[in-house]
Amino acid sequence: MSEPALLQLEHVTVVRGGRTVLDDFSLVVRQPECVAIVGPNGAGKSTLLKLLSRECYPVPSPATVCRILGRDRWNVFELRSGLGIVSNDVAAWIDPDASAEDVVLSGFFASATIDTLNDVTPAMRGAAGRALVRLGIAHLAARPVRELSSGEFRRATIARALVHGPRALVFDEPTTSLDLAARRDVCAAMRELAREGVSIVLVTHQLDEVIPEIDRVVLLDSGRVVADGPKSSVLTPERLSALFRVPVQVELRDGIYIAH
């Protein structure tokens, strides 16, 4: 029996604040597969992420299908065991005095830190330790967040999403606000996970985040898919200029597409 699709979205329409943000949107992502969803600000990327995390829902319609890992309905906590989301929003509410280990453990509770109300089991600590090792930051387990570099903290948030052992990770513009060294560090972590067989869905507007292990690219504009296919045929100057509404030139450098 074949694995269910990681994502199966068909004829999905999402309205937020009286505005249609995703408009008859359809996308299927198989397992294992690495896909980049690229679009400008306002294209609907944030709403798509909220749809996947079950923070918003599509307009009911007989034609609409919205399945994750083959299921229409999920307990949100249970969903995290199959689909981890790496979001920059974590930085806004994580306690700066929390340790890197606490950041990872907080993934079990969807909390900002770990306190006496959280029943942290030995199994959870073991899983957190393995996730820290996997991201190469086990030596930082006891270090407070305020003492971590931006790249180290971003790796800790990836470990946080991995702590449940999900089959796939969704990255939300993972290198935003990072310096050059930290950007390279995070992209290297994504590449390693992809090579390990973790399915990756990258949501971004930056072409240089599309790591070589990602071959399929989906272009999103005004809530609709306007292109979907191999990146060699999608990431072209003509398509990207139309998408971003400015002249775009593309250079391929060491497997990475650079726009200028």
What's the structural blueprint in terms of helices and strands?
Layout: E1 7-16, E2 19-29, E3 34-38, H1 45-52, E4 65-68, H2 76-79, E5 83-86, H3 90-93, H4 100-105, H5 122-134, H6 150-162, E6 168-172, H7 180-195, E7 199-204, E8 216-221, E9 224-230, H8 231-234, H9 237-244, E10 250-253, E11 256-259
Parallel strand pairs: 3-7, 3-8, 5-6, 6-7
Antiparallel strand pairs: 1-2, 1-4, 8-9, 10-11
Write a concise keyword list for the protein shown above:
single chain, 260 residues, alpha/beta, Rossmann fold, 2 domains, six-stranded mixed β-sheet, three-stranded antiparallel β-sheet, 9 helices, globular
Describe this entry's structure for a reader:
The protein is an alpha/beta fold and 260 residues long. Helix 5 (122-134) packs across helix 6 (150-162) and helix 6 (150-162) runs parallel beside helix 7 (180-195). The chain contains nine helices and eleven strands. It folds into two domains: 1-82 and 166-260, 3-Layer(aba) Sandwich (Rossmann fold); 91-165, no CATH class. 29% of the residues lie in helices and 25% in strands. The chain is globular, with a radius of gyration of 18 Å. It starts with 6 loop residues before the first strand and ends with a strand. Strands 5-6-7-3-8-9 form a six-stranded mixed sheet, sandwiched between helices. Strands 2-1-4 form a three-stranded antiparallel sheet, with helices on one face. A two-stranded antiparallel sheet has the order 10-11. The mean pLDDT is 90.
